[in-house]
């Protein structure tokens, strides 16, 4: 069992890192009461998903998907650019999500004077 785990860590380290980032991000989103820490957890979770897409799209010995004029069918191994394009788009969406989240956090702090979720619930219940 231990050899299996060490073999996974040695050969598939991107997947192991992905699970660690995903776990830390999920823990930060669930366990923390601070809204900034929750947003950092969302960003870590997004980074884990990006790493997963890139790791899955990796092709051993793959070349760019430009077919030469005289292709040799036996040695033609190409990597698909689609996962990388999806990750690039997701990074842009993640940056926009982070910017909007930070703007909301600044506005919440200006209005209520706190960033703790439990305190915000109490203040909103009193209104």
Q: Largest beta sheet, briefly?
A: none
Provide mean pLDDT, rounded.
Answer: 86
Helix content: over 70%
Using the CA coordinates, give the radius of gyration: 21 Å
Helices and strands: which structural class?
mainly alpha
The total of beta strands comes to 0
Distance between the termini: 56 Å
Tell me the fraction of residues in β-strands, as a range.
under 5%
Total domains: 1
Judging from the principal axes of the Cα atoms, what is the shape? elongated
CATH domain fold name: Helix Hairpins
CATH class, anyone? Answer: Mainly Alpha
CATH architecture: Orthogonal Bundle
Q: Could you state the order of secondary-structure elements as H and E?
A: HHHHH
Please mark out the parts with pLDDT under 50 across 5 or more consecutive residues, or reply none: none
Number of helices: 5
Protein name: Cation:proton antiporter
Main location: membrane
Transmembrane segments: 12-30, 42-61, 81-106
Keywords: Membrane, Transmembrane, Transmembrane helix
Structure explained in plain terms:
- This protein has 127 residues and is mainly α.
- Helix content is 73%, strand content 0%.
- It has five helices and no strands.
- Helix 1 packs across helix 2.
- The termini are far apart.
- 5% of the residues are buried.
Please render the helix and strand layout as text.
Layout: H1 2-11, H2 13-31, H3 35-57, H4 82-112, H5 117-126
Helix pairs in contact: 1-2, 2-3, 3-4
Transmembrane segments: 12-30, 42-61, 81-106
Protein name: Cation:proton antiporter
Keywords: Membrane, Transmembrane, Transmembrane helix
């Amino acid at each position: 069992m231990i050899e299996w785990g060490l073999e996974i860590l040695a050969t598939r380290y991107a997947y192991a890192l992905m699970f660690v980032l995903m776990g830390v991000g999920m823990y930060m989103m669930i366990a923390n009461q601070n809204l900034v820490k929750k947003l950092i957890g969302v960003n870590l979770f997004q980074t884990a998903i990006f790493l997963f897409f890139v790791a899955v799209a990796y092709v051993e010995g793959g070349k760019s998907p430009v077919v030469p004029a005289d292709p040799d069918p036996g040695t033609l191994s190409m990597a698909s650019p689609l996962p990388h394009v999806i990750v690039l788009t997701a990074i842009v969406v993640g940056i926009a999500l982070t910017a909007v989240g930070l703007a909301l956090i600044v506005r919440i702090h200006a209005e209520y004077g706190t960033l703790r979720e439990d305190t915000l619930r109490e203040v909103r219940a009193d209104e």
